[in-house]
Every structure is written in structure tokens, then in C-alpha cells.
Amino acid sequence: MTLSIWFSLFIICILGAMSPGPSLAVVAKHSLAGGRLHGIVTSWAHAMGVGFYALLTLLGLAVVLKQSPTLFTAISYAGAGYLAYLGVNALRSKGGIAAKLKAGKSTSLLEAARDGLMISLLNPKLALFFLALFSQFVAVGTESVSRSIIVATPLLVDGLWYTLIAIVLSRPKVLEVLRTKAQWIDRLSGVVLILLALRVVYLV
User: Fold this and answer.
1) CB 150 within 8 Å of CB 77
2) CB 3.0–4.6 Å: which of 19, 133, 169, 197 could bond 84 by disulfide?
3) pTM listed for this prediction
């Protein structure tokens, strides 16, 4: 795997992590209610679920590529369509990140970890996202090291991004800036996701 290919993987992973959704809501809830440590525990439990999905998706796509290249191509096009769909939704978003930053009732660290793990494992959109994401990388990730990198990248990006969110939410001034820029973050993410979808179609 070349550095440029990995960088494309990294960009899609960070955009996926940044996209406002139930995962952000859960991390925000525990960060605001329980404090920084609760948010960090929630973040890395969520990342473990992401890594599990990434591994299953990579192994499944590798089997499909080997047994039916035509089906793999169809999955790649479907994946490009889903990336474009995410991009359009991001462009049309009105609530943005600010709508997800709400406090909840303080819980134990074990409950924070449980919520973080389950919100990723029980999110069917995560599986669709990885199908869209990995369809363009599985062909170049035939070696064990490359496959490890493909799985580790979304896990680490997800964990580090939500750790950053947990830290930011403990600083009120930074939180206010994030609220005011939320729609711009959505719009930028939308444009990049649509461009990445076009790239997938071009490569297929």
C-alpha cells in the first residue's frame, strides 16, 4: 500500500468520524455529563466496535473479490453511491454538530464503555459505510501488513477523533466555536465525500 492510497483511506475515515450522528451524540452526552474521562472511555469503546466492523467487512470483501469480480464491481459502484448520498446529506444538513452536543445524566465508566461499544455495533449504517470505503482498497490490501493497516486506520482515527471531541467538550470556549462552525464543517465534508465517490467510480 502506497502512502497516497493510505492517505485517501485516512481522509475518508476522518470524514466518516466527523459526520454528526448517534455516535457523536453518545460521546457528547457522556463527555458533558460525566467529564473528560467518561468521554474518552466512550470514544475508545466505540472505536473497538468500529475496528470489529472494519475487520469483518475487509475479510468479506476479499472473499467476494476472489470468487466474483463482477459482484465486487457492483458493490464498488453501490459504495460510491452511498458515499455520494452521505455527501449530499451533509450539504443539506441544517442542525450540524451543534444539534448533537447535549448533556445527559452522568453514568459510570462501565456504562459509558457499554454505550460507546453498542452504538457502533448496532449501527447498520456503519456496515454500509465500510462496504463503500473498503471496496476501493481491498484489491491493494492483499498482504497481511496492508490489511492490518486498512483495519487499524479507521479504528485509530475514530478513537482519536472522539477523544478530541471529549477534550474539546471540557473547554466551554472551544465548544462555542465548534457550535458556530458546525454547518461549515458539514458542507466541507459533503463536498469531499462527493469527490471521493467520483474517485471510486473512476477507479472501478
Assistant:
1) no
2) 197
3) 0.70
